[in-house]
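[Solved] Which block belongs to which protein?

Original post:
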Amino acid sequence: MNTQTDNLKTNKLSNLKPGLKAIVYKIDGSSIFKKRILELGFIYGAEVKVIKRAPLRDPYEYEILGYRIALRKAEAENIYVLPHSAAKHLANNDFSKCKIHKQINNNNIDIANKKNINIALIGNPNTGKTTLFNHVSGSRNKVGNYAGVTIELSTGKYRHKNYTFNICDLPGIYALTDYSYEEQYVQKYLLEEEIDLVINITDASNLARNLYLTMQLASMNFNMVMALNMYDELESKHQTINCQKLSDLLDFPVVPTIADKGNGIEELFDTIILYLKKRNITSFSKHIDYGEEIEKSIESISNSIESSPIINKNYASRFLSIQLLEGDEYIINQLTKRSNNKDVTEIVQHEKDILENNINDDIEAYLINQRYTYIQNIVKQTVKNTKASSSAPKEIDKLLTHPIGGIIVFIFLIWLSFKATFTIGSYPMDWLDTGIGLLSVWIKNTMPPGPLTDLLTDGILGGVGGVIIFLPNILILFCCLSLMEDSGYMARAAFIMDKLMSKIGLHGKAFIPLIMGFGCNVPAIMASRTVENKKDRLKTMFMIPFMSCSARLPVYVLFIAAFFNQHQASILLAIYGTGILLAVGIGIFFNLSSMEMNKVPFIMELPPYRMPGLKNTTLNMWQKASQYLRKMGTTILLASIIIWAMGYFPQQTDYSKDYDKLITITNNNSTLHPEDKASIINDLELSKAEEHLEKSYIGQLGHFISPVLYPLGFDWKMGVSIITGMAAKEIVVGSMGILYQADLDADETSVSLIDKLKNRTYEKGPKSGQKIFTPLTAFSFMVFILLYFPCIAVIAALIKEAGWIRAIATAIFSTMAAWFISLYIYQIGSYFMG
């Protein structure tokens, strides 16, 4: 620290009011918090500005190094600051020049003979890695304007000038540390896989923060090229970067790119080929000179590593030495696994003891401060402002995160998404239903009566056709979610909701996987990896199945369209709200339980607002459409055929009434009016079909489980639909289309299954003649579908992420919750409604 600042009054960052600036002086708190907050730029001497408080008064939004970050007040209390006027008293360390270490480059490749080049894409979150990957590989991986979109390794190929580049898109990380799942995963991949070159993707408009990871990658001695991405955003801020100067300082090529438009991509790979051709057997790598004492320790540890390797491959010993000094758990674990590395462990501890006596600072904090000091000098030399930038995004942000307006806007946007799902989606839904009805009529008129015709019309069109008509509704909902994600609003929603999330022991970062659950629970469960703390991650995973995924949406659309002519968006919002409330209850329960683990601080980047791109939005919608259609042609088609077959067989002749004789008598009765005769015959045929269905295999199964579901107001056909829906929730609608014998050739202007549900009555029993479905029954059934057994894919994801026991426990608990809550809704509702 600088002794000139010792007599200046320090304050806690949490005490500063919005609009004020200060200078970071000291960081306290847990070692986990200190390391992460330092890596994000809260170093001694850095300028930090308080932007605003969240609508619920916590967390706070801060600006540092040109980007926005959210911290809770509890975390901000561990950051001590000096008045902004203290900046002139701070030491101005000159790291504009770095020491050159002469090393053998172990990653040289013979590019003249090797035509397949392995490339790793690495960068911070929200830098456009996946956008670039999709462009070059032709993939359609999901992209979004918030951290945690890329949660797994993706691979693809790109052919350019007779070379094949095998490209791996790795999760976005801020640093090579053991702080989060993604960072551990990326570090392990870099140290253990065959990599010929690293493309470091950086956000050109936020170079200072991005260069921290770059410095760490450079110390690994990889062949590396930087893609200075989103260069158009930099220019929109009226800034420029001297790429040649930046390349000279970093000692590897720098190429400006705009990945979403494809600009600079060919130049990037041209540069890679040229760069690899120019690499010599012996290369020079620039590294930061950390000072005489640190450098001596690094050299001592490096010599020990080179004589007793920690990692299976001979990577840069300097990088490993620095990681050991910083206490990186992954590297330490690799070290302790090998008994022959005992000497290295002893040397590391010896060097740490020496440094603690010679350096008036925490070793880790000192190293991070030195890196950022060097980075700041690089930025000063390469980034230039041309004129003042516009404040329009700031004005938008004020509205979206306003103490009152922010919450209103959030609720309104969710409601508007549901409203659009029904209002706009109703037109293509009717068109598809009419088309399927006409196709069914054509098949019946063209093909002779028999099992095959029945299979095509009643089985496949009744099942698959009954589900596919809801595709437009799902696409509209995903379009709305994609627009919120791509614009950067989803991260603001997490910022707004953090205070409420804290009441259940989570922070705003967990809100994003929960919101993703509205699209599909499976990727949402995978995205929970972005939650660093294991307890919070498990809690988030258990809550996600109660977020109503798009697979349940066809059920809601069907029943809301049939029984709720008014306030349709509000009813849908109430269904989703029920799942959210139960998820919150689960969170509170786990928070009060004894499952205690180390608490991870709330630190979340708030990405800049961006205009959603038509290409990306269309791509996300196409992904969901293709997934939905694949499910139509596989799972739902197979399920529809099985359900139809179980309802078609066994063929029976022992009917309680001789329907064929009654139909013949009715036809021969000349005293009946033709319309009356047709009505009686139709009723007789329906009764015959109903009795056949009840005696079929699926009817026997339905009647077996009906006692459990009868108190909920469900008949046996609803029970069968519930069982089939365990494979995929869309099958519920397909099953009902088959079991309730939807007349697809009926009135072409109506959704036939809706008409059947409206008019369906009990055939026998104490409720004989009463309608099976009422608004109360429909609401109770929708809540059951919302809550009960997650689909098989979700269970598989839970097994992968949380283990068998937790996955099975989730399935049992959710089904029990569905039964009891639906029972409560139906019985209490019946009491008040008579």
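(Second protein starts here: sequence line, then its structure tokens.)
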Amino acid sequence: MTIRLLFILVRGLLKLRYNVEVKGLDFLSSRGKAGILFLPNHPALIDPVILMTLLYPRFRPRPLADQDQVNRPGIRWLARRINVVTIPDPAIYGDASREKVEAGVEKCIEALRKGENLLLYPAGHIAHRRDEDLAGASAVETLLERLPEVRVVLVRTRGLWGSSFGRASGVAPVVGKVMKKALRALLASVIFFVPRRKVEVVMVEPVDFPRTGGRAVLNRYLEKFYNQDSPPAWYVPSTPWERLKAHELPEPVNQVSQSDLDDVPAATREMVIQHLQKLTGHSAIRVEDSLSRDLNLDSLSIVDLGLWVESEFGFAVGDSAAIETVGDLCLAACGHVEAHGKTQLKPVPESWFLLAGRPDGLPTEKSGVKLPEGATLASIFLTQAARDPDRVVLADQISGVKTYRDIITGILALKPQFERIPGKYVGIMLPASSGAGVLYLAVLFAGKIPVMVNWTVGVRNMTHSLDLLGVTSVLTSGLVVQKIESQSGSLGELKSRFVLMEQVSAKMRKGDQLRAWLGARLGWKRTLGASPLHDEAVVLFTSGSESTPKAVPLTHTNLLTNMRDLCEIFRFSPTDRLIGILPPFHSFGLTCTMLLPLCSGIRVAYHPNPTEGAILARLIEAYRITLLVGTPTFLNGILRAVKDHEVDSLRAVISGAERCPEQTYDLVKRRWPQMKLIEGYGITECSPVVAANDEDNPKPGTIGKVLPSVEFAIQDVETGQSVQPGKAGLLLVRGPSIFGGYLNYEGASPFMEFERKSWYRTGDLVRQLEDGTFVFAGRLKRFVKLGGEMVSLPAIEEVLLRNYGNPEDEGPVLAVESTAAELNPELVLFTIRDLDRGDVNNKIKEAGLSAIHNIRIIRKVSVIPLLGTGKTDYRALKQGL
């Protein structure tokens, strides 16, 4: 009775804004009130409320709803009482949603069998356009296959397209904001004078419904019913006092960039199309084809395609809603996933924009940021925290914003837990996030050495890295582990080392949490004042240059020297806001977007997936980011996805880790001439930045000058002497930011004697211009950068030779090279054997290498060319590409 009265009350409130006309309800009721499958269109988030007020008194239907839409204050209470069946959105939760979606469908089938009524939206989401587009939606087909005789009632709602609860603006509505606006309008209209929106609801039980027609036939029938004489978007004023009267609104426009598809290599495009042909049975597939409408794939099938991209190409697809067309899938295979706004951003708290208790706005005059005095990261962090404990410094969309006091609360809560972990090394395996920074500091203050685990290198290399240091515990989360397994397959015994932070938090006692909270407000300086027990501040890993990764220990001195150099050559301001997209196992991400903010007070907002260009552009706008730091691959994806004025707050884009292509320079110069693109150069072993361009006068195509603390020499690789001016040579460096040597490594020393000094041998070729600026000229060893990751070609060759070589071979039987494209290079296998690419990539996967090492092209040759020394002539092979 309470729920019935509640719906009567809600219906009365709705009448203040909506003039609802209902057709067919009485006739439908006269034919029976049980076992009905209601199938409505979905023009706005408000239409389920309207329908439930109409249907509940007579039919009491159980709605099938998105769990995130239901999980709101007030709605949760109501949803439990009317038995809502909730399922996660596969476009957001990916493969993790599969079991829950299937369980939800089973609940729906069971309810209908019992004679209950079900309210199900065939599209699964609110309409993106004037006409309902069911595309490859499969829910109705699934239900009718199991219950072919169930009563089906179609419901068509008109008049809500253009409502603030819909997507006629091109942007997903934020319920909280819309409700606040509606409440203000209600009060401004003196409640009873709100302009009313006319809504028509038509209910029909068709006799010719094609129950056994299959997905495509069912969906086209539903679309024909829903879209019959569909009206345009219509604006209705919120108050009677508005000058703007009711009027028609334009339809949202999809933006498609053909230039992006031009960057997709032909081999990648062919692989994607061949996979889709095999999956769907369609022989003629075009890049503009819709995966759902033209190829009839449902949301879970598109999630599977995202997983295929990850396993075949090594690039994570965080937002499967971004993959709408074949062209989108091709771009995802190159690491460019341009999400179309499916993810709703949480509002940014006002505290994010406050500096020393006052709004700071965008920076004008720059007052340079300097690191406090101190010999360790821990002491400098504590000094910075003491200056302004309530200053916001970290943020992300999951945990919100964190002040220094919040971070210290987390450290105090976790420190005792981590002190009990055996050994001096503790692994951390998390993406770019506030949580990664808190865990790093908690491990450091627990007297341990943080070991940043790179999950993109594959199971074999991950296992080798941990075994190298005897790491028994890796701090991570269940979602991260699930994501890795969906990409790489089973992690096997490796999972026994994972410590899931969700479980650590769940087991933490209330008393410990209270002590941590009080400690962060009363006595944290004394509790955390002790210096770290070890000189090493972190251990990172190389990408496996020869065959397996090497452990790179970086000391507090190494990292602090590098950060102080950065603050000297670049004018960071207290008003700057960074966006962190690189994972902390990436040395560039660790130093520049995690440690530097924590030690300097510069704010940083994180996002875990650097390939989601469109979402990152929206985050830049929402957080008013001033500095974008990343690799060219990710930066290019963000800048290409920008719409309107989303990145107007940026004053500089800082590029490193790989050569920045001319296309990115041209894009910035053309669209944002006031923005500075500053390129630098770094190496993990050098903490990592070695050289960077001048902020005031950056030179495109160069990597700038070496940092103040770095001493350098350039050696002629042919003569072993210093190079002649203007000639390319091997870069040698030394100084306090350079590491001291690999851990537990028995290979050749990375250091060499040159001109009576010991130098770190970078393996990179550079050329110095007259003004001292450097130009990157290539690598001595055979590497290729893919998605910002260093991929060793010899490591791939070693795996393949173990499988396809034999002692009787008189010469080399295979060689691995890469295409010369600056953007999206592809790995090519030259071989004298008849090899299948699928079999070759399976061997690479079985060896524990990640999918980013997969071969894209196989070239059959009669002989592998050799140099006079007997070594493979890779230059000749590459000329044939």
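Accepted answer:
You had them paired correctly. Confirming on the second one: The CA atoms of residues 281 and 295 lie 9 Å apart.
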